[in-house]
Request: fold
Amino acid sequence: MNSTSLSDLEDAPGSSSSVDRFLLEHGIRLSSNSVGDDKDSSFSIPQTTEHDAPLTLDDFSPALPSHLNSFSTHDDETSQIHQDAAYLRSLPREPVQSSPRAPSNATPHGHAREESSMGMAGSTTSTPSGRRHESSRTNSHMSEPRFGQSSVAPPSMDQDTPDNEWRPLNTLLAQHGFSPIELIPTSTGVIPKMDALFAVVHDLIVQLERRGQIIQDLVLDSDLHAKKHAKAETHLASHEMKITDVTEALERSQGEVQSLKTELMRATAKLESEQKAFKLQKSKLEQQLKISEHRVKAKEGLLERLQHKFQQVMDKEDVSKTRTREVFRTIQQRDPRKSSAADLKSLELIAMYETEREKMTAEIAQLRSQVQELCCDVRDKENVLLRQTGANGFTQRDAFVEKLEQARLEQEQSSRQLRHKEAIIQEKVNKIEIELRHSKDIIADLRDENANLILEVQSRPTIRDYKAIQRRVVLLERQLSDQKAAVQDAHTLEDLRKYMGTAELIHRDKVNAKLHLNRLTTLPKEACLDVIQDICRQLDLTDVTLIGPSVAKLISVVQAVPRMEKFIHGVCGCISQNGIVPLEIVTSTLTKWKNDLTHLAQLQSFTDKLHAILSRRSHDNVQDIQGPISHNRALHVVEELVAFETHFSHEREMYSLAITNVDQPDVLIHKMIQHFRHLFGVKSMEGVFPKINEVFLFVNEMNNALASIKESLGLARTVSVAHALNELRTALQKMTDPKRPPLAPDTHESYVVTGKSDVVGVAAVRQQHVTLTKLKQVLGAQTIDELVPRATR
Reply:
């Protein structure tokens, strides 16, 4: 900014011409020929538009007495200032050493520039308080010893020192908010430091520039307000023209209103005649509506019966479809795909086979009952034949057994009939329960619909209420139109109060008396106008009548502030337990929670699907599960499946490795495996272990059978198989011999069968049959052939 810096002036030889040159560069011309000549001294300060800092209220505060005294234009103060300046010029200065070996108390060039910049920065303080603070900071900073300078203790204030000559000038500068001039002691006295002197002059220039700018802004504002005033006058003239046009339009509209009233009377008469005709049509339509309602009710009853039958058919189809899908899922280990033609064809085949299976099951049940009856008949005939060929001593016993058998047959037949009747009754009960459940659902729906209709009827007004409401609406419309006309005709507040209600006026007067608002009538018109204008500016309103609604809205908003604060505290407390958090964090946290909720829904759906898939496992694997599957149980099942998959893959690798190894016939174990597969017809390696287990079971069963035969024939355990078979053949031939001796009368029930006459009794046969039935139920077998494999597993 300055062509000559403070450090350059300080380094140059000290003279008054450097100060004058510095002032001229800043636009100030200071000419003083002598100390006492006050008329030749003048200051020339140009106006600039640059602002160093914003204005504050302290800049426009009234001047203190000390300020007025310091800035007075008396000749004694001016002469005193010029005398001080002449005295400063007359003081001798120490020459500046420019040799490389400067003394230790010389200030470096860079340090001088730092002090100059500090002085310039301090001069940009915008307010007097800021300048005082900066001056105090500068004094404290200047009072400290600088680097490379010798610390010289200032003399006492009570003594007569050379500083007392500069004290009035420093006091005057401090009173006006400027920093004092720093003095440098010399051998002959003290001289002012150039940086401090330039900083004071710079602050004075800045303040003068700011005040000039303020004056210029005020002049521009006054021109702007004058233009606005002229524009408002033009608007006022245009509004007056519009008012005249509106009054003419109002007169024309009044004439139109009169003509419309006559037309309204004609339309009213025509409307009454049309209403009578409409009433007759309405009565006819109501009669037709009642007849239609009766027909609709009859159709609804028929439709309900048809829907019930259709629902039964649909239930049966749904049951068959679910059963078909379960069979498909059991076979294919997956759900059928709707878009797959092969799956649809498989479902059709399964449904066909299921229907055939049901028919076959019914036929098999009927055939089993017939077979049981035939078996009983054959057993009875065989018993009769055996009793006829037997001894005479058993005649009474056979008759008793025959009676028991006949009674048993009758009981079985009666129990079979009772079971059949019970099954029929159970089916009827199930059908009745289904119909009852469906009827209850229909009744509940009808009750809900009836309740809704009752509420709707109760909410609707009657004809009398409707007519009363219509009359009330017409009356209110008239009153409203009268009020609007009165408001448009009114020109003062007294005219408007005529159309206000008595209760509203009483309430208004009470509130005015409570708040002592009647004293506002004593206020001048200008004060009220200023207050209203201030309120309109604060609320950004252009109409005075909107002040009340706007204030009411503000009151409602302020009343809602505690609830809003409570809500914000609650939300912040929910988000963070450490206290109130910034609102920006709250929004981001809620957004994150919302995203987490979407992920949570996906995880929940994944969990439900996983539980549904796990619940379709075979019942043999989920016997220990009671109720819904928990997350821990599901995780355990998944771990088991993974372990099973690992085990299965390991076995598959092991079998594949075994297949590759069997192809090497040089190893003996491989030759043995191939020979075993050839002997028993095992086609794959996976069938080797099951075949070995089957051979083991067969050998054990044969050994057990041979042991039982040897024990029955009374042979030793060490007897060979051939000898045991020969003895069994001999025993069978003896059983077929008709000349065998009769049984002893005291033979026990656990005798050995040696002939047809030694057939066990009916009670023993029934006991065996019951035992086999219980075994099938316990082991879950369908036939007797499945008992041994299941018992072995």
User: Anything to note?
Assistant: Residues 194-332 form the longest helix (139 residues). The mean pLDDT is 71. The two ends are 107 Å apart (CA to CA).
